[in-house]
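SAMPLE LOG
Freezer: B-3
Tube label: C17
Construct: single chain, 403 aa
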Amino acid sequence: MKTPWAVLTAAGLAMVSANPAWSQSSGRDDGILAGSFLLKPSLEVGARYDDNIAQEDRGQEETDIIMSVAPTLKAESTWRRHSLKIDSGITADRYLDNTADNSLDARFVTNGRIDVTRATKIDTIVSYRRGHDNRGDDNTGVQAEPTKFDRYRGEVIVRSRPNRLSVSGGGGVLYANFHDADAVNNDDDRDVINYHGRARVAYGVQRHIDAFVTGRVDRFDYVDAVDDAGFDRDSTGYAVRAGLAYFPSAQLRVSAAAGYLMRTFDDPGLGDVDGIDFSGSVNWELPNRLTNINLTAGRSVSESQDADASARLVTSFSAKVTHDLARTWELEGRARYANLQDEGGAGATDDDDYSAGASIDYVFHPRVKLGATYDYKHRSSSDAGEDYSQNVFGVRLRIGFLD
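STRUCTURE (predicted):
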């Protein structure tokens, strides 16, 4: 009997070769017209070798080969006014040896835009995601399999730019429901409702320069009154930044901002977290239109389940370069550094995370690409036994309307 991966791959290849629209279309934004929507189906099938699937310290690594299949369907409206985009997909991972690590993730995301006037828009996001935390995740204990979760999100943002002044603001809610991975570990105490609001005011001080101020407030309300360690982790967070955005052309955009962030906890046993906040980004498409450079930097507060910490302060820097070589090869390189520090408690964990990766795809056809990937991760931790290194080698076949 054929495996699901073989069946889906054969069906996808047959669809590519049999559909004239796919053969005649070469633009990335092409799709299958269905009424007033443009449909973009795609399929990725792959295999990868992972030399440390649970991100364990040296001498405790588990290796495995993982088979994956990920069908996706995207849709975009073709209306003259307003818009609606839908992104849906499933990702199935199957481990050859460690079958308890098998996972089936899914997503359904809608992005809508209501054109109130030429200057005023209302953006909406409604999404559902089924995902998982691997056994090596920071917020999972020692357990036999990944932790599954469901996330539901809704958000509304109103934005207006009638002249050199632009204003946007709105808010939303996110509910996360975690499922117990086994009979020993309790993940229900991670169930949480997050309410958040944000605003941005910008002014065009020059033709290609905007000065802006952003603000954000959020509230975490955990379903359980206290977690397994006896703490009430309900909290309120605030952040404000001021900065500049420089955009001399459609090919280059630079942004930088700095400010202050704070998170206060309801439980007197959990200390508050505060500090300098900052963000920065560079997105540059080189004049050859074949190379793109993206740089980002930022700081955020991450939720923690550690008994000796209120939260983790995360400072990160990342870079990604993509290049189309001779129109038949697509190359990508990426790197990231992150520092994660325990804050607001007796914990003194200080982790440095390093990651790098590369991918190469050969374009057989605008709708058929065969590629190889490599990803490396390394953690240097102040806690004994928490260091790890991980290498992942993969191959993949992608077919369909690919972004």
